[in-house]
Design brief:
42% of the residues lie in helices and 15% in strands. With 456 residues, the chain is an alpha/beta fold. It has two domains: 3-250 and 439-455, 3-Layer(aba) Sandwich (Rossmann fold), CATH 3.40.50; 260-414, Rossmann fold, CATH 3.40.50. Strands 1, 2, 3, 4, 5, 6, 7 and 8 form an eight-stranded mixed sheet that branches. Helix 2 (75-101) packs parallel to helix 6 (194-204), helix 9 crosses helix 14 and helix 14 packs across helix 15 (416-436). It comes from Mikania micrantha (bitter vine).
Length: 456
């Protein structure tokens, strides 16, 4: 147990029931437990983690009264309901811990610190009400923060969203002058009603800063974004990415992984396979999915395609595809419902990753030195895509049309431009490995974070 003088520590962590938020928090919890801290992992009933995969952690279910099929008007309503429902049980638990300290001996007293992601904002509010320090783990890129933070200003100035005749929202290629190289079309909430946009931003962008931030990124990768965050909040910001590589952990996936795809990859030539996975939340219509399938088939490259049940609107799996196309695809590819992504990306047969550009997927691809084909959908994904293609130059943005897809796959896997992307991806991979090694920026930041907790 972590002790400082005669003090003992109880860290209470909570993350939203989204794959991209829960996984980094579980990695962080495992790391902090390895440093001797007592860990309580509070979680919603929806997408609850498996305690058997995380020995040593104490798990606290929070009654959320939600279901995976609940009908919400939008992300804002979902988040508000989640926070409203989880808050009472979380607060009750913390009050119980505090009350138990009153009769504890000096050697048994625990100092409590709350660590939460920005979507579980109730936790910071409860901590403030109880006089406890709180720390926010941000699981998006640092570059996304200035992009979302500027939207209220752009709305006030009439610069967002960009509208054409009949108030039609335009897919504007113009660069936002304060956010180079971000274009207006890369900003989140592009087609969301203004009132709903402002309400959601006010929920997830904290006005009153926490005691500190953890950011799942690297100093070398996003210096401008990190500087913006530090200047804005004036509290410690620890860049600790990639959290999935700081300590060995069991799988944190919400979905059952089909590991048979690894033996299929073993039979493929080095760097010949395009791996396709659009994450755990995206929904794609039948037309776009069919274009994806034809693009894969026509590229004549081996592929591993994750078609998550429910990915394609109105269908369970890939039964919408014509039988002759399916037969053609089976000759050179494999379709699975879910894959062990980190293991797939580490496989020598994989030469490109066609992704939605969620930040976890981006970090995992960077760590393995795999170039990306970028098909973003919402929120931070479009910003990540822009940086991957225009700044870091290890990705190419995909247009969901079969000819464009075919060209993009060949460009990444067999073209000269793909070779150049691969070289840049390897250079970033080497820097990432340095960052998490002893004396590297992320390693030092994690050690400094442990010291910071002990100083509270």
């Amino acid at each position: 147990m972590a002790e400082h003088g005669r003090r003992r520590w109880r860290l209470v962590l909570t993350a939203s029931p989204l794959q991209g938020h829960m996984s980094p928090m579980l990695h962080l919890a495992t790391f902090l437990h390895s440093k001797g801290f007592s860990i309580t992992m509070a979680h919603s009933d929806l997408n609850r983690p498996d305690p058997l995969n995380h020995p040593g952690l104490t798990f606290l279910p929070l009654r959320d009264n939600l279901s995976a099929t609940a009908d919400f008007a939008g992300a804002g309503q979902f988040l508000q309901t989640l926070n409203d429902n989880c808050r009472p049980h979380f607060q009750h638990h913390l009050v119980q811990i505090i009350d138990s300290q009153k009769e504890a001996s000096a050697s048994e007293k625990e100092s409590i610190v709350v660590i939460h992601d920005n979507l579980m904002f109730f936790a910071g509010s409860v901590a403030a009400d109880l006089g406890l320090p709180s720390i926010i783990l941000r699981t998006s890129s640092a570059s996304f923060f200035p992009a979302i933070n500027i939207i209220p200003q752009l709305l006030e100035q009439g610069r967002f969203p960009v509208q054409g005749p009949n108030n039609q929202i335009l897919d504007n290629e113009e660069i936002v002058s304060e956010l180079h190289p971000i274009r207006y079309k890369d900003l989140p909430f592009l087609c969301t009603p203004i009132e709903q946009t402002l309400k959601t931003i006010n929920m997830i962008i904290t006005k009153k800063p926490p005691s500190a931030f953890l950011w799942n990124t690297f100093e070398f990768l996003e210096p401008t974004g990190l500087t913006h965050i530090r200047d804005h909040y004036q509290v410690p910001v620890f860049s600790v990415g990639p959290l999935h590589k700081i300590i060995p952990t069991h799988s944190t996936s919400f979905h059952k992984e089909d590991t048979s795809c690894i033996s299929w990859l073993d039979k493929q030539a080095p760097r010949s396979v395009v791996y396709v996975s659009l994450g755990s939340l995206a929904n794609v219509d039948e037309k776009i999915s069919t274009e994806m399938a034809w693009g894969l088939a026509n590229s004549n490259q081996p592929f591993l395609w994750v078609v998550r049940p429910g990915l394609v609107k109105g269908f369970e799996w890939f039964e919408f595809l014509p039988e002759d196309l399916v037969n053609q695809m089976k000759m050179r590819g494999l379709i699975v419902k879910w894959a062990p992504q980190k293991e797939v990306l580490a496989h020598s047969a994989v030469g490109g990753f066609w992704s939605h550009c969620g930040w976890n997927s981006t970090l995992e691809s960077m760590f393995e030195g795999v170039p990306m084909l970028c098909q973003p959908f919402e929120l931070d994904q479009k910003v990540n895509c822009r940086y991957l293609s225009d700044v870091w130059k290890i990705g190419v943005e995909i247009v969901a049309e079969r000819g464009e897809i075919e060209d993009a796959i060949r460009k990444v896997l067999v073209g000269k431009e793909g070779e150049e992307m691969k070289q840049r991806a390897i250079e970033i991979q080497e820097k990432v490995k340095v960052a998490i090694s002893h004396g590297g920026s992320s390693h030092n930041s994690l050690e400094a974070f442990v010291d910071y907790i002990l100083s509270l």
